[in-house]
Design brief:
It is a single chain. With 365 residues, the protein is of the alpha+beta class. The protein has 10 helices and 8 strands. Strands 1, 2, 3, 4, 5, 6, 7 and 8 form an 8-stranded antiparallel β-sheet that branches. The chain is elongated and about 90 Å long. This is LPS export ABC transporter permease LptG.
Length: 365
């Protein structure tokens, strides 16, 4: 019996090369098809804004592709696992490896090592590229694909309350006293909660206290009268710190920024369980790629000529997709407070790791 975890050096590189080439091929196929379908659905909205053309369509593609890669990379690893192992099985290469004394775990070891490398690259890609693309795309969508906002420090769809009054902003730029709100709408409400005045402005800056609306349009509800003002100061009870905590998008912040946001919200007495689950999932999500060789391993074994290869491939695919379903369900339960954040992010990972290992041991070892 061989006690080494990996097979020979040549076989390890051979299996890893087969696996990585199929991951890249499947990922390219999925991303290209999904990007074309997504662009067909969004191109009308993008081109509807005056002045938009091919450059804006290309800009949308550059922002959307990182999101598609991050979302479908684990699926690509799953499909690549099944394709690789089914091909090796059909060509009797698995039988040859087992005849040479290799165990099922040793056959899967190069694939697991490759999946770990893919998971690390996926984590770095998500933190450095996907978060910035998500923030820029969300800010651009909030202005109906109008003038492209800066992709540095931009947030969108801000909702704030100052007592009974409400203030909404399409986008936010900057931080601290230099913070700027764009596309601002302020609603002044009566003690009974009825809107008595509306102010709209393209831009608002913090003047400590309050926010200065630049050339706002005022609408008086009782008199149904519209007037344009030179400026107006509203929402004196809202500070830049409260604006920062008003809406935290986990997809638009890297793991360090999200940790700081969670700490600020916790200090302010806000509920943070949803964001904590998202923080943990930034680690467990990319790491799910390491599960795919284990869940798809059932396609590697059994005699191909027995006619069971297709069934085994379907079983491996079903196990992989079941993981994604359970993972999303656990996150949803965590968001509603049904699971603790740590359990919501990690329970599906360890559950399916045990399932995959059990299936492999019971059937092949």
């Amino acid at each position: 019996m061989q006690l080494e975890f990996f097979p020979s050096r040549a076989l390890t590189f051979y299996l890893a090369r087969l696996f990585i080439t199929r991951i890249v091929a499947v990922l390219l196929m999925l991303v290209l098809v999904l990007q074309v379908l997504d662009l067909l659905g969004e191109s009308g909205d993008i081109l509807a804004h005056p002045g938009n053309g091919e450059a804006q369509l290309f800009y949308y593609v550059t922002l959307r592709i990182p999101q598609l890669i991050a979302r479908f990379l684990p699926y690509s690893v799953l499909l690549a696992t099944i394709i690789t192992l089914a091909t090796l099985n059909q060509n009797s290469e698995v039988i040859s490896m087992k005849a040479a004394g290799l165990s099922a775990h040793q056959i899967l070891a190069p694939l697991m090592l490759t999946a770990v490398v893919v998971a690390l690259l996926s984590f770095a890609f998500n933190e450095r590229v996907v978060t910035r693309a998500s923030a820029a795309l969300e800010a651009w969508e909030s202005v109906d694909y109008g003038p492209i906002p800066k992709d540095s420090g931009v947030r969108s769809n801000i909702y704030l309350s100052d007592g009974k009054d409400l203030m909404l902003a399409q986008t936010l730029e900057g931080s601290g006293n230099a913070m700027v709100l764009n596309g601002v709408t302020f609603y002044r409400r009566s003690e009974q909660g009825m809107i008595v005045e509306q102010l709209r402005a393209a831009r608002a800056t913090y003047v400590n206290p309050g926010w200065k609306l630049e050339q706002p349009v005022r609408f008086d509800v009782s008199g149904t009268k519209t007037t344009r003002l030179a400026s107006a100061t509203v929402a004196q009870g809202i500070t830049p710190e409260e604006v920062t905590m008003a809406r935290v998008d986990a997809d638009s912040q890297n793991i360090v920024e999200l940790a700081h946001s969670i700490g600020a919200l916790r200090d302010a007495g806000r509920r943070t369980s949803e964001l904590e689950a998202a923080w943990w999932h930034k680690i467990s999500g990319p790491l799910s790629s390491t599960l795919m060789p284990l869940l798809g391993a059932v396609a590697a074994f059994g005699l191909a000529r027995s006619g069971q290869l297709l069934i085994r491939a379907v079983i491996g695919m079903a196990l992989g997709f079941a993981y994604f379903v359970v993972d999303n369900a656990a996150l949803a339960m965590g968001n509603f407070g049904g699971y603790p954040p740590l359990v919501a992010a990690w329970a599906p990972f360890f559950l399916f790791a045990l399932i995959g290992e059990t299936v492999l041991i019971r059937t092949e070892e």
